[in-house]
């Protein structure tokens, strides 16, 4: 599958500066995180996680993107997947209402845009108004400098959202929140250390979920406290040894989300489809 060169892409954007008190990032990301699944027959289904990001087009017009791990789409063989919308009802109940999500053209051509080297994908979508409002601003995604700026390192805690084994937190379809500590070093430069390890129990269905820092997360003594929450990256896979999980997740840096969005913009400017 051919991809466009990434060398000419715009420089990484800064992380938006916003006081943490103005928005509860944990609740915000819970509302922006959705289950992705596809029935593949014989009572089986492929399941992953995605999250919604508001990433305006280069001309400033609004745009809603679904971010996930690229392999979540790739392992779903059919043109249409499902996305798990949730709706609040007047009595305080929530209703789970999954809807069709086209991911390929009928000839098999992907509708998503894939990073040239990393397991990251974005897909432009339309969503119910509630989810469009819930989408996370693109400026809250870490860039290549974020970890160095805040001296993130081994032992620092991050949170993750997902649907392990296709399970949700409740029948309303909300994602399950977990936490873990960064367990690898070095973390940067991101062009050399493109992923990092997070110490938590990962399962199928977690892939594509957001990994993020909020003030509730623990930091190693003496480390500076970031001025705002941020999405550190995308959960890509579980580390396995001898065919068994060893409770470690592999996280792709947030910088590669920015680069994938920039690639989408470059393809559209050149008149190309998401993939060729």
Automatic annotation (TrEMBL):
The keyword Ribosomal protein does not apply. GO terms for molecular function: peptidase activity. It holds the Pfam family Trypsin_2. InterPro entries: Peptidase_S1_PA. Keywords: Hydrolase, Protease. One of its GO terms (biological process) is proteolysis. It comes from the Bacteria. SUPFAM superfamilies: Trypsin-like serine proteases. This is Serine protease. It comes from Brevundimonas terrae.
């Amino acid at each position: 599958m051919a991809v466009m060169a990434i060398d000419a892409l715009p420089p990484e954007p800064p992380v938006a500066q916003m006081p943490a008190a103005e928005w509860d990032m944990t609740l915000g990301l819970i509302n922006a995180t959705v289950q992705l699944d596809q029935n593949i027959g014989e009572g089986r289904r492929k399941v992953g996680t995605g999250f919604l990001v508001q990433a305006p087009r280069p001309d400033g017009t609004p745009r809603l993107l679904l971010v996930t791990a690229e392999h979540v789409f790739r392992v779903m063989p059919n043109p249409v997947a499902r996305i798990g919308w949730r709706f609040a009802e007047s009595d305080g109940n929530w209703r789970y209402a999954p809807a069709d999500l086209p991911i390929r053209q009928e000839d098999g051509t992907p509708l998503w845009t894939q990073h040239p080297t990393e397991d990251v994908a974005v897909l432009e979508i339309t969503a119910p108004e509630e989810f469009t409002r819930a989408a996370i601003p693109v400026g809250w995604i870490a860039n290549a400098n974020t970890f160095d700026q805040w001296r993130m390192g081994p032992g620092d805690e991050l949170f993750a959202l997902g649907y392990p084994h296709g399970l949700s937190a409740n029948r309303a379809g909300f994602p399950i929140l977990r936490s873990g500590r960064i367990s690898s070093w070095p973390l940067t430069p991101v062009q050399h250390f493109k992923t990092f390890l997070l110490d938590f129990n990962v399962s199928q269905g977690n892939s594509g979920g957001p990994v993020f820092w909020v003030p509730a997360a623990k930091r190693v003594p003496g480390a500076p406290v970031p001025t705002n929450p941020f999405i550190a990256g995308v959960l890509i896979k579980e580390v396995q040894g001898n065919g068994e999980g060893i409770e470690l997740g592999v996280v792709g840096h947030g910088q590669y989300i920015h680069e994938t969005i920039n690639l989408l913009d470059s393809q559209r400017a050149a008149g190309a489809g998401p993939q060729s």
